[in-house]
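Example record for the data management plan.
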Amino acid sequence: MAKIFVEAYGCSASFADSEMISGLVVNGGHTLTDDTSESDLNIIVTCSVKDSTANKMMYRINSLKTKPLIVAGCLPKAEKETVEKFSENASLLGPNSLGKTLQVINSTLEGQKLIALEDSDLSKVGLPKVRLNPAVGIVEIASGCMSECTFCQTKLSKGDLTSYRLGDIVRQVQTEIKEGCKEVWLTSTDNGCYGLDIGTDLPTLINSVSEIPDDFMMRIGMMNPMYMPRIKEELISSYENDKVFKFLHIPVQSGSNKVLHDMKRGHTAGTFREIVSRMKEKFKDFTISTDIIVGFPSETEDEFQKTIALLDETKPDVVNLSKYSARPGTDAAEWDQVDAAEVKRRSKVIFEQISKISIESNQKWIGWKGKVLFDEQTDEGIKGRNFAYKPISVKDKVEIGQSHVVEITDATVKRLIGKIVS
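Corresponding structural encoding:
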């Protein structure tokens, strides 16, 4: 029986993987520790989405390899040699190899390096888990994706789309709620293509989960625009249920159709524009989150200006901004790159623009009063979400998982500030 330290980075699917790894650790007779000085073995669930993240991963791998180490997640699958260069003795566990978790742990504890990067046929739905947040249940609905983006390593790490069965997902959500979760995240590499391989779709799944009679809220995870037109109207209908946060994460990446074509994104700026317009037309208050990459190899100043124009027109509430970085194994890594100083300048221009859009969006909520579900403890105090998934901080004493009526008194770029009035 060993003490095992587990930490995770990256997307919600990566954190869901870490919860399942932790669950398998406990089921296997080991114990978890949150202190590396006490651990017999360290596990890091990695992300490889961009250079800055990968560099952070390498730093952590270096600091954790003083003990027997397992490097799990996307990085060992996408960049095995890089990981081994930093820690030649670490065992490796792929994002779709969780069925081998205990085997890899036991081998590593015995001093034998084990590499388990091949996909297993084990569904991630129904695996034991130890939650990072007792109020939030993260449920993976699929693994892999159908895209071939020229800048992204995800396909290298997670492979083709494998959707999990609808009934299994509904049962997993019921388990999350039964065990005390008040908020459920439906997550995957790309929710938009969920079910294409098994004859169903995302709106059908949302409707099925919505029928669970318990009191909970559902956050629908990221979906790429290219799969949206075929499910758009059904998706809008599924969002009418009060259990669904009025929140959509739809990464456009660029406002230029030429750049989107070069990225092999499969959608146009118009696709994004139309979806945003329909959601905001249907629902009075709706939160749009998107992703933007600046400095993609074929992005000229003209193409960059099209991204600025699209953001000005659509005014997304949240923009996750990234400076393009060439990731090993991707097509775009082989192309001529934009000068780093120019990428930095473009990033600064967009950062200032989205900060202005965000503060204006948040200030509109001042004076709003309504129900808030408190789901996170932060350095600034406890944070909750309203029906539109707006982050709301209060200074009142509140327990995680509780709901209260809150009045919004102020706003910053990243959050709303309120006080409990019930």
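Summary line stored alongside the record: The radius of gyration is 21 Å.
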